[in-house]
Write a structure and sequence with these properties.
Helix content is about 80%, strand content about 0%. The chain is mostly helical.
């Protein structure tokens, strides 16, 4: 039901603002959500595997976090014209905010780095759920429109 309202919102937008076709918009959202789930889960796995006593190399952590931040930004931008999916955009915003805070702590070698990492991990679970839900929703909508 939310997907139909989101599709109606997308379809009602002027053609210069929205994507060329609704199917293309859902395809782009599905790809972005898949990328976000993949990049965020890779970052979480890297952080969880390393542990606080023996963290992964700083460069590796920063590259993984930059990829996840970019993926979150794309999803947030694609969800902007879809108010019915705002809860997913908020999950991505919270994750990106925690990610940027942690990223800054890593760069500064802050003594609070582990606290920021804990906050990041707490925001990762809802984000992964949202990203997987968005990907499934977008794939279903794209398939429904192609019928």
């Amino acid at each position: 039901m939310a997907a139909r309202r989101a599709l109606a919102t997308l379809s009602a937008m002027p053609s210069d603002v929205r994507h060329p076709t609704s199917s293309a918009a859902w395809t782009r959202l599905a790809m972005a959500a898949d990328a976000l789930a993949r990049d965020a889960s890779s970052l979480v796995a890297l952080l969880a595997k390393a542990g606080p006593d023996a963290p992964a190399p700083t460069e590796q952590r920063l590259v993984a976090s930059a990829r996840a931040a970019d993926a979150a930004t794309v999803v947030i931008e694609l969800l902007a014209p879809l108010p019915d999916l705002a809860q997913h955009a908020r999950a991505a915003l919270r994750f990106r905010s925690a990610l940027l805070s942690w990223h800054g702590a890593v760069l500064e070698s802050s003594p609070y780095e582990l606290r920021f990492q804990a906050a990041l991990m707490q925001h990762a679970a809802p984000l992964l759920t949202s990203a997987l839900h968005l990907a499934t929703l977008a794939h279903e909508e794209r398939s429904r429109q192609q019928e």
